[in-house]
Amino acid sequence: MSVIVSDTCGWLLDSHSFINDNYGCCIARHGCMQQSAGYNFKREYFNIIRPYITSKPTADNEKTKTSTDNLKTPSGVDVQKRRGRKRKRNLNQGELDSQVYHDQVRLLVQEGTKSLVEVGQTLGYMTGAAFEGITKTPQDCHLADMCDMAKSLALDGGDDAVAPQSVWHDEALDLFSRMTENPLDQSCEVTLMGERYLIPSRSKFLLSDITRIQPLLNCGETFDLIVLDPPWENKSVKRSSRYNFLPSSQLKQLPVDLLSSPECLVVTWVTNRPRHLRFVKEELYPHWGVKLLAEWLWVKVTQAGEFVFPLDSPHKKPYEVLVLGRKSHNCDESVTTSTLSEHAVPLPDQRLLVSVPSTLHSHKPSLSAVLKPYISPNNQCLEMFARSLQSDWTSWGNEVLKFQHISYFTKETNTNDMHHQSA
């Protein structure tokens, strides 16, 4: 289950349950024997009980204030005292632009989130209950590094179409220069590059970076929905060197025009930096021939429904932006009579997606349930810069298997072995 509540403001989502829906019964092959087991994504990765930044409690235990006057960091340092040691400065243009944008969406975020959370609480969600378990980030499989090393490998077939290889039937797999799929109607547990991964049913993926995207183009498919989660460039990422980033100019090199079907819906995750938002709206979408239609907000809350950051915090906002547009084919008037135009619901502007975020870096909630009404029936969906897989989706990225590693899951049940040769 992904959508808990839906109203005119948006949706309240349960990302943890959505993930688990895919892995209630996974099959694994051990020699000539086949086993099945259920897996759950570890609940502690969504165990956000308190806001990341909270107000200093009053002596009489009044409710937490949202004012920035008494903010404390998670380590307990009084932010006001720490600020006192710094010289006051004027806001730069980016900060001023961010404040203008915040003023425009503030009421929607405040009132819409309150409405969705209150209904969710009547249904038994957002109760503030903690999960058992200690959050431990699994060991990195260095997928991005392996993609870099694999650039010396030749691409199969050149520009010719190459059928996807199967994680279930094929013995030797080339994950870096061929599309790979799980063709089964059931999720499966497989060994890839010496590690165990869970692969959702009817999913396809390509493990590569932007320089090796040709196999995706050769798969012979175009897509009715393309979701992008680019690794945006920013100062903190540059300083830490922990994550790869992609300059905005290189995003224009993505072959979205070749991958999109007529009237394809294109959705891009954007940081709260105004320059990134302007780039998508004013440069990237026009370059791809995508007409801007809407901006939605992903609002991040705790298990009790509180904003993870104070709504009016000058530094961190409790929301991220999604920019939605439709592939434009102005030269083809016949597109207006397409199957999509006959069946799809008009795309609304200013909607909220409210959910408890994952503690894992850049682990976004799935958009498949909320976007389904706005794309054509029997749709083909693609996620770019993906770090996980979804049933009935194609995924591409240099960490596309990251959150499929079995160490992110707990094994729930085992059923009897099936003593027969695998199909």
Walk me through the structure.
The chain is an alpha/beta fold and 423 residues long. It has a domain of 251 residues: Vaccinia Virus protein VP39 (Rossmann fold, 3-Layer(aba) Sandwich). It contains eleven helices and 19 strands. A twelve-stranded mixed β-sheet has the order 1-2-16-14-15-13-12-17-18-11-8-7. Strands 10-9-3-4-19 form a five-stranded mixed β-sheet. It has a two-stranded antiparallel ribbon with strand order 5-6. A hairpin with a 2-residue loop joins strand 1 and strand 2. The longest helix is centred in the N-terminal third of the chain and has 30 residues. It is globular, with a radius of gyration of 23 Å. It starts with a strand and ends in a 9-residue tail after the last strand. The C terminus is likely disordered. Pfam families: MT-A70 (PF05063). GO terms for molecular function: catalytic activity, acting on a nucleic acid; S-adenosylmethionine-dependent methyltransferase activity. Belongs to the MT-A70-like family. This is Methyltransferase-like protein 4. InterPro entries: DNA_methylase_N6_adenine_CS (IPR002052), MT-A70-like (IPR007757), SAM-dependent_MTases_sf (IPR029063).
